[in-house]
User: Which sequence fits this backbone?
């Protein structure tokens, strides 16, 4: 794999989790999170994800990778639709099972998740 792809991989696997952890600690230290802070958090997250898409696109173009090499070749609308519906149902089902599992748990980890959810999802 080229050096630049390794660098992107290292950034995604080390820097992003570290920054997420520090942001989580700051968020949990706040007594409450108002709508403005939530919207800013969402906007920064969305902008960062699009920046990463642009970075990967730029490095792929510089490397001369084709659509087929990136795995973005179309398999036809029926296949894409079927995969999307199946994927959404599958991921939704896993989320539902995980929420049920966490809801029954006791201890520090589930309480931390409840505290974070209450900060982010309640008004």
Assistant:
């Amino acid at each position: 794999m080229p050096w630049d792809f390794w660098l992107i991989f290292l950034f995604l696997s080390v820097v992003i989790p570290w920054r997420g952890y520090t942001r989580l600690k700051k968020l949990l230290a706040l007594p409450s999170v108002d709508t403005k802070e939530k919207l800013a958090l969402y906007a920064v997250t969305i902008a960062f994800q699009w920046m990463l898409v642009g970075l990967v696109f730029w490095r792929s173009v510089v490397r001369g990778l084709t659509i087929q090499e990136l795995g973005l070749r179309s398999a036809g609308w029926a296949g894409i639709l079927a995969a999307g519906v199946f994927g959404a149902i599958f991921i939704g089902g896993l989320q539902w099972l995980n929420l049920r599992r966490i809801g029954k748990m006791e201890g520090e980890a589930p309480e931390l998740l409840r505290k974070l959810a209450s900060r982010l999802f309640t008004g």
The mean pLDDT is 87. The radius of gyration is 19 Å. Residues 35-63 form the longest helix (29 residues). The helical segments are 3-29, 35-63, 77-104, 108-121.
